[in-house]
């Protein structure tokens, strides 16, 4: 058309202004609302960071308690929504189940779907933050054939999720504080990452004035893919594969460099970071720590460290500025905590939820927002006459 500039994959196309997350990919810097990720990881917690992302500033003690109290009050799922899980096969992947259940929330809460009514947006925000861990735990319980547990609102956000996931009605479940602390940290590290694939999806769907539940449901499915959130599970599959092949890291790296179809070093590379992903650096330390503190020596962790070391010194990866990303070590931690591989991306989704919500709200409050509607360059047939079927 002469007016359209193509940018497949939006490598260099900005679609909005945002005051939420700052990334300097060359320097390996990530900040939420101005606060460096390393400081938040060390000093804050997931609910506080959620408040920060959504409302723009750190809460006072009173604001924090009020917010945490509201989120806690909404953890239950409607009993009819509980039945919804019975409609899926036992071996259903929990990501589409998660997305479907979130989409179904808009049928249960028809009183709060107006994207321009601040009170309705607020209650939807709280409901989502409160219910996603419950939904995730039920999606997991379904796959192992165990009964769903009700939330225990005397517990903290993370502890409650762990209780619903790993608890059994017949046995008291003690949440391991080491596990809870590490999971909280991982959620903080995942909480936002500006205009990535799933967040852009949430914004694009929301730009049509679709409600918050519908927009987040779409974001969850965007996160599912192995090049995005699904990479954390793909890394573990890759490590298992290398182990099954006798642990030959060099051989695997050679296959990656030969660009064998479908063979990538999963958990490496990033569209924006051309330096060590600052989240990966924190997670690597955590992986080391938690495996040691849980008393697990992990052959796969050793393989991962060897793989990283080989890649960081290999010209192929150096020239392309490929470094470990957030997903390289997370799977090993989740596995040590007892989560099956299928749940890894679900954990990413719980962590990313406050970011999606914050971005959706920012978009709706921005007077510059228009419906997202990319253009194309048509390369098909020119006009031609219709030929009746008998003459083709
Ligand atoms: N292994 C081997 N080669 C790679 C990798 C990798 N992981 N990542 C990029 N490359 C190569 C790629 O083949 C290309 O080489 P060449 O120029 O010779 O064709 C070059 O590096 C540039 O790659 P690209 O695919 O154009 O880069 P992109 O910005 O489109 O893709 C990415 C970014 C994250 C999708 C990609 O690096 C990748 O597929 N990584 C593995 C999957 C992964 O770990 N995803 C998680 C991303 S981080 C957080 C998240 O979203 O979950």
DSSP helix fraction: 55-70%
- Order of strands in the sheet with the most strands? 1-2-3
Assess the beta-strand content as a share of residues.
under 5%
CATH architecture of the largest domain: Orthogonal Bundle
Under CATH, the topology of the largest domain can be stated as Citrate Synthase, domain 1
Question: For the residues shown, what is the average pLDDT?
Answer: 95
Number of beta strands: 3
- The radius of gyration over CA amounts to 22 Å
Domains, number: 2
Count up the helices: 17
The bound ligands are: carboxymethyl coenzyme *A
**What is the CATH homologous superfamily assignment of the largest domain?**
Citrate Synthase, domain 1
Main β sheet profile: 3 strands, antiparallel
**Mind telling me the CATH class of the largest domain?**
Mainly Alpha
Q: Low-confidence parts, pLDDT < 50 over ≥5 residues?
A: none
Distance between the termini: 32 Å
* Shape assignment: globular
H/E element sequence: EEEHHHHHHHHHHHHHHHHH
Structural class designation: mainly alpha
Secondary-structure topology with pairs:
Blueprint: E1 21-24, E2 29-32, E3 35-36, H1 37-43, H2 46-55, H3 61-73, H4 79-84, H5 94-108, H6 118-144, H7 157-166, H8 177-190, H9 197-206, H10 212-224, H11 231-244, H12 249-257, H13 278-293, H14 299-312, H15 315-319, H16 327-337, H17 344-365
Antiparallel strand pairs: 1-2, 2-3
Helix pairs in contact: 1-8, 2-17, 3-6, 5-6, 5-10, 6-7, 6-17, 8-13, 8-17, 9-10, 9-17, 10-17, 11-16, 13-16
The structure holds carboxymethyl coenzyme *A.
């Amino acid at each position: 058309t002469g007016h359209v500039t193509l940018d497949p994959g939006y490598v260099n196309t900005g679609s909005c202004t945002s005051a939420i997350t700052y990334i300097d990919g060359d320097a390996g810097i990530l900040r939420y609302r101005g606060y460096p990720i390393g400081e938040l990881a060390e000093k804050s917690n997931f609910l506080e960071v959620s408040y920060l992302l959504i409302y723009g500033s750190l809460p006072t003690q009173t604001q924090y308690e009020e917010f945490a109290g509201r989120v806690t009050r909404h953890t239950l799922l409607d009993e009819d929504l509980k039945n919804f899980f019975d409609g899926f096969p036992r071996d259903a992947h929990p990501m589409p189940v998660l997305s479907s259940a979130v989409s179904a929330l808009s049928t249960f809460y028809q009183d709060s779907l107006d994207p321009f009514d601040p009170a309705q947006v607020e209650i939807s925000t709280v409901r989502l933050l409160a219910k996603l861990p419950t939904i995730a735990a039920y999606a997991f319980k379904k796959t192992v054939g165990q009964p769903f547990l009700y939330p225990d609102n005397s517990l903290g956000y993370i502890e409650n999720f762990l209780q619903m996931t790993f608890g059994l009605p017949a046995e008291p479940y003690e949440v391991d504080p080491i596990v809870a602390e590490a999971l909280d940290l991982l959620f903080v590290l995942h909480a936002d990452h500006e205009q990535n694939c799933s967040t852009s999806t949430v914004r694009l769907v929301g730009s049509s004035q679709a409600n918050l539940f519908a927009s987040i449901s779409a974001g969850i499915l965007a996160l599912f893919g192995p090049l995005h959130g699904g990479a954390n599970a793909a890394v573990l599959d890759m490590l298992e594969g290398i182990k099954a092949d006798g642990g030959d890291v060099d051989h695997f790296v050679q296959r990656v460099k030969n660009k064998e179809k479908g063979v990538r070093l999963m958990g490496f590379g990033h569209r924006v970071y051309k330096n060590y992903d600052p989240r990966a650096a924190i997670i690597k330390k955590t992986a080391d720590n938690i495996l040691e503190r849980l008393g697990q020596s992990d052959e796969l962790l050793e393989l991962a460290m060897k793989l990283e070391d080989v890649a960081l010194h290999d010209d192929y990866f150096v020239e392309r500025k490929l470094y470990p990303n957030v997903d390289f070590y997370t799977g090993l931690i989740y596995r040590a905590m007892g989560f099956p591989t299928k749940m890894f991306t679900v954990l990413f989704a719980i962590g990313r939820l406050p970011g999606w919500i914050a971005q959706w709200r920012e978009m709706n409050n921005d007077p510059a927002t228009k419906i997202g509607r990319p253009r194309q360059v048509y390369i098909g047939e020119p006009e031609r006459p219709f030929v009746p079927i008998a003459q083709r």
